[in-house]
Amino acid sequence: MKKVFLAVTLVALAATVYFALAVTPPRENQGGEAVRLLYLHVPTAWLAYLAFAVTAFASLLWLVPRTRRPEWDLLAGASAEVGVVFTALMLVVGSLWARPTWGTWWEWDARLTTTAILFFLYLGYLALRRTGATSDERGKRCAIAALVAFADVPIVHFSVTWWQTLHQPGTVFNERLDVKISGSMSATLVLAVAAFTLLYAYLTMERFELAKLEEGREEREVQRAIAERVASEGAVTA
Amino acid sequence: MLGRFPALAGADLDVETGDVVLLSGANGAGKTTLLRVCAGLLPLRSGTAEVLGADLVANRRAARAKVALVGHETFCYDDLTVAENLRFAARAAGRGPADADAALERTGLQRVAQVTHGRLSQGQRRRLALAAAVARGPELLLLDEPHAGLDEAGRAVLDEIVRSAPGEGRTVMLASHELGLARAIATREVRVAAGRLHPVAAAGAPPAVSPAVSPAVSPAESSGVGA
Amino acid sequence: MRFLRDLALVAGKDLRIESRSRVALQQILPFGVIVVVMFAFALDADREFLERAAPGLFWIAVLLAALLAVGRSFSVEEANRARDGLRMSSLDPGAIFAGKAAAIAVELFVLEAVLGVAVVVLYDVSFTDVLLLACAAFAATVGLAATGTVYGVLAGGLRARETLVPLLVLPAVTPVMLGGTRAFQAALGLADDGWAWVQLLCAFAVLAVSAGIVAFGPLLEEA
């Protein structure tokens, strides 16, 4: 089942690469060949936020006692790990695109800036996950941290967007960043988003399974220690 | 709390109001863990436990309202004086400054009332921990190695508090290595070994009133280290 | 009201500890001032530039000092396991949160007053709209203190607490940074949307306080 999924993902990615590099045309005033990075930039941006949403939602499911299962906590962590990679990728690709297009490595536009903040929120969350020694210690703290961060993102986005409009004359800036897409470009973009979403899902699944195996091993060790303890007391009498 | 270590595995205990239960056993047996579970500080992974009618699994906070623990730490603030710490402890438990002052006198700490916690000696801190617990006015008093660090006078104070507990409607559970002293004030003894509880033949019959503590935790593991 | 009574008890306790130990006054406050001075070195004491950058630099200094204040507020609870004492008390956890956050906010208000003077003196700026300044500072500080307190208790008892809390807090308080800076710029007469930003700061403060009241109880139970 997973192998089929992986195969489909790889096919979609291959198709994306083909269309992106061979089929769609370059854009004259928006970086020439570099505009092809758009097919990487847009999907990774979408996934940066999707992954975080999954983390937040899984954390919520874990927090609510009725739906609490250890799997949700593991899923939250897995999605965050995959998500942080896509977020970093989005920022790097955005930067690589900005350079040939506008001559600067970084633009303080609302989306890039908000994503940068998102990146740091991810890092904090992942650092928190690594610090909690046991899954019990981790669960509640990380779940709440994920939800607080997720709730913060819209506020950050709003304030950054507002701040942005005060700095750059609106039209010029929007022109610089919004590439008009149509025809083969938009189709390829949709394909790219789909392919990368599949990739995200696959990677998250793999990471999740790995986390489950790790948890399982820990759990078995605890059970074994308990059994040993119960057995050893047999020798002691009051 | 260092990692996951099953401290209690299979513990059955029923304590009546007015009992003074002594928990004896070697280090690492699980005495501290049991006390912390009864204080509502450690979560139970499995099993049931009830303290003063409040379910420890469902609603730990409710159970804690009438319980006070004297542990290895004082739960106090280094920069506040003895009197200020006691006042805070009393008021935080919904009681008044009068209770704090009473506890101060009862434990003989009047002379150091204005000394900040950070400058107290070990023996004074142990007394303060006791005073803070008394000031909270608990129905269940949990004492973890209360004799350790106390001098003659301090032990006399401890003695008085424990002996008068049943008369004040309080139940006491204490874990101690000072078996001689502890057995003298206890009404029952329970030996803790590797997380299991073994009742020892009691000296006197406990007054049977409604159960104060009944953690029928079998098997119970908690995520903490027992000591 | 029990909530207010508990809040006052906890805030009073924290402020009394501060008045006794003087950590905020003798360590955190000087730290804030030094940061303000350091900025002048970093920016080559360019008069004109410092004047324009003053609002932002002020809030960065406040932010960094706030991290120290939060750290201090919770290290007090780590010693002697006072945290367990709080858990075993019958204090309302939401009120404990509000009390601790309030104490931090009070310390920050004092800090901001001093830093404000430092900025005016060292960067040669003059504020025209003092009311805007005060409202913005108030809303921003409440949001800052509340967010810091949430993450402070969240990381309580963890090994890497001191380095983890700054990493968690800073990205989360971006709106405060933006809002505070812009509002102060308006108060300097360099912009005219100050009050709109104050509204944003108030909204953030309300959300942060609400999140804290709800989340503090469960988080206090950890470790």
Care to describe what's here?
The complex is a heterotrimer of chains A (238), B (227) and C (223). Chain A is mainly alpha-helical and 238 residues long. Chain A contains 7 helices and no strands. Chain A has helices spanning 2-23, 38-63, 70-102, 110-131, 135-165, 170-177, 184-232. In chain A, helix 1 (2-23) runs antiparallel to helix 7 (184-232) and helix 4 (110-131) packs antiparallel against helix 5 (135-165). Chain A starts with a helix and ends in a 6-residue tail after the last helix. With 227 residues, chain B is an alpha/beta fold. Chain B is 30% helix and 19% strand. Chain B has helices at residues 31-38, 60-64, 82-92, 97-106, 122-135, 152-163, 179-185, and strands spanning 11-12, 15-16, 20-24, 50-51, 54-55, 67-70, 140-144, 171-175, 188-193, 196-200, 211-213, 216-217. In chain B, the strands form 4 sheets. A 6-stranded mixed sheet of chain B has the order 6-7-8-3-9-10, with helices on both faces. A two-stranded antiparallel ribbon of chain B has the order 1-12. In chain B, a hairpin with a 2-residue loop joins strand 9 (188-193) and strand 10 (196-200). Mean pLDDT of chain B is 79; it is low at 1-6, 202-211 and 216-227. Chain C has one domain. Chain C is built from 9 helices and no strands. The longest helix of chain C is centred in the first third of the chain and has 32 residues, at 47-78. The mean pLDDT of chain C is 93. Chains in contact: A-B, A-C, B-C. The interface between A and C is medium-sized, with 27 and 31 residues.
